[in-house]
Recover the amino acids of this structure.
């Protein structure tokens, strides 16, 4: 498995050159250790462009223990840079695989985020689908930042629940900033920022066919389902990503990945 410290610089964001199997093996090693406080960013074009525009978001990605490629374009860049084993690590698939892998190992999971009621819905749905799955708790935070009393309540709840994995479904960049801020404040082995995975795995969103994912057209599939929410993002990010990538590739502009 590639060393977790290896990375590919894409517009200043360090992406780990891994595939789903690599990610699962790394997570198992972490959970079997005594250390807490690791976190995983699941990052595609959206996250990279958010990081390009905001140094705090870029730093949150670059300080992650893994920043996996959630998007075929990111994987294709890795292949062109010689990382032939690299493949897309799709957030909902990663979550599903870790949940399943952890059942015989007794891993405990906590769901943080989602729209009101979604985390509870996800918990009930997964426990029906995956007998033996251990869910330690759920928390639906307010849309605004937590106040000090709520922060203390969250800390106390997760400390009492003792999960191995904290799944954060706040969308990018909120989830990356949350994990960067909280990863060393909670007794959790690994945090994962998985965005819309809560909605996909609970059945609230339709997942794109695998062939659409593999040809890098999931963005178009999602745009057709949620045009009002996603059109501004894609119209802003996709052309700029191609432009900046061309600048980086030709050496006309440098994109340092230092924190």
């Amino acid at each position: 498995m590639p060393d977790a410290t290896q990375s590919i610089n894409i517009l200043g964001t360090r992406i780990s050159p891994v595939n789903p199997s690599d990610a699962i093996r790394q997570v198992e090693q972490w959970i079997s250790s005594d250390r807490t406080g690791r976190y995983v960013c699941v990052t595609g074009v959206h996250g990279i462009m958010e990081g390009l525009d905001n140094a705090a978001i870029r730093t949150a990605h670059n300080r992650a223990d893994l920043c996996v490629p959630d998007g075929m374009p990111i994987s294709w860049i890795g292949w062109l840079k010689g990382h032939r084993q690299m493949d897309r690590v799709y957030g909902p698939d990663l979550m599903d695989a870790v949940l399943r892998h952890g059942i015989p190992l007794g891993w405990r999971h906590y769901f943080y985020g989602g729209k009101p009621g979604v985390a509870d819905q996800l918990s009930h749905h997964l426990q029906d689908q995956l007998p033996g799955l251990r869910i330690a708790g759920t928390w639906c935070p307010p849309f605004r930042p937590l106040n000090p009393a709520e922060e203390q309540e969250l800390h106390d709840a997760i400390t009492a629940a003792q999960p191995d994995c904290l799944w954060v479904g706040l969308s990018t960049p909120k989830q990356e900033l949350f994990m960067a801020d909280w990863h060393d404040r909670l007794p959790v082995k690994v945090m994962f920022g998985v965005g819309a995975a809560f909605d996909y795995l609970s059945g609230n969103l339709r997942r794109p066919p695998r062939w659409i994912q593999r040809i890098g057209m999931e963005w178009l599939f999602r745009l057709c389902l949620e045009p009002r929410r996603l059109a501004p993002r894609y119209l802003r990010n996709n052309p700029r990503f191609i432009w900046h990538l061309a600048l980086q590739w030709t050496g006309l502009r440098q994109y340092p990945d230092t924190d």
User: Anything to note?
Assistant: The chain has a mean pLDDT of 92.
